[in-house]
Write a structure and sequence with these properties.
Elements: E1 8-13, H1 19-35, E2 38-44, H2 47-51, E3 61-64, H3 69-77, E4 81-84, E5 99-103, H4 105-118, E6 123-127, H5 133-152, E7 160-164, H6 172-176, E8 182-186, H7 189-201, E9 210-215, H8 219-224, E10 230-233, H9 236-251, E11 261-264, E12 268-270, H10 283-294, H11 302-308, H12 313-323, H13 328-346, H14 351-357, H15 363-374, H16 378-385
Parallel strand pairs: 1-2, 1-3, 3-4, 4-5, 5-11, 6-7, 6-8, 8-9, 9-10
Antiparallel strand pairs: 10-12
Amino acid sequence: MPPEPSTIRLGLILSDRSHYFRGILGGVLAHARALGHIRFDFIENDFEDILAYEEPVRLDGLIAHPLSKREYTFFRRRGTAVVNISTRVPPTEIPPWVAHVVSDDTAIGQLGARQLAAMGLRDLAFFGNDDLHFSILRERGFREAFAEIEARSPAQAKPRYHCWRQGVRGFEDWLAGLPRPAGVMAAQDHYARTLMTAALESGARVPEDIAVIGVDHDPVLSELCPARLTSILPDVTRMGRVVLDTLVDIIDGRRTAGGTFLQVPPAGLHFAASAPRHHAADPAVAKALQHMQTHLAEPLDMASLAAAVGLSRRGLEYRFREQVGASPYQKLLEIRLLHARHLLTATSKTVTAIASECGFSNAREFCVRFRQKVGCTPGQFRAQDS
């Protein structure tokens, strides 16, 4: 029998006020129980709490949000492997010997833009703060996805981009000047709450005039919002597993910490009142969009869709082009491919299973449509994201 693995002593420095960090902590602890040879000497909010311990700090590894130069030096001198799990500051501000396991903020921004566009919105906006590195990355992803959407949109329905990067200072005039309706992705749930409150105080309706998406799915912040918040879900459980496996590999010599930079894609979206799955001022178009979503796996012809919302096929076509800038069929294909992208990145389902779940008649049709719109095969898309 192989020898029992020796106990690995770890510490964590994480803010317990952050829903995001609490989620990662839960993933770490659950995976530690499964591994069975992990011991946590402390779980604290900050470094000063650690210095209050009477016993000397001797750890094999540490999981932490960004620390100060003095704090990194403290652990470096003790031979402690460190994994950073935050993108609040750029990696260049963290010593090169520290490993990184972080959320894929660029992918988070891409998901926000694609979802707002899939709702049927033409004016897309990002509300963030250039003092936060994760906000910069999320806006970068938002702009990348916007450029893709713009490139494939018909000339009469080109989307328009708007942005505020200065956090919660002086944004009210920018918000008042946004066309209506508009879809806004906020860099995090805190910003989404601020934005939504200001929109309602100015007389705008949420989501009819301003649809809002946040990031982190913090249930407390969502309850404090004027309308419950649609929010992108970082995959914190998977983050916890990857963080712990990475740290154990570094400690056991299977991986070097320097140069280790792993990104975990988001798990999807939690939908609520601030941004429905699909948005349209015309009730018939909104109903048709919702019908598409709830019958995504079914073969859906345009005549039956028109009948389901009480319109003629020609009437539905006309209203869609007025509201969405595309035909019902084009919009249905966009919704199916958006869902397929999510399944390819967030699950291990086969291409055949994804094709069926997204309403394509077979895997071949799915692959052809996917390549036409995305520029690569589903398999290539999944490999790029892994």
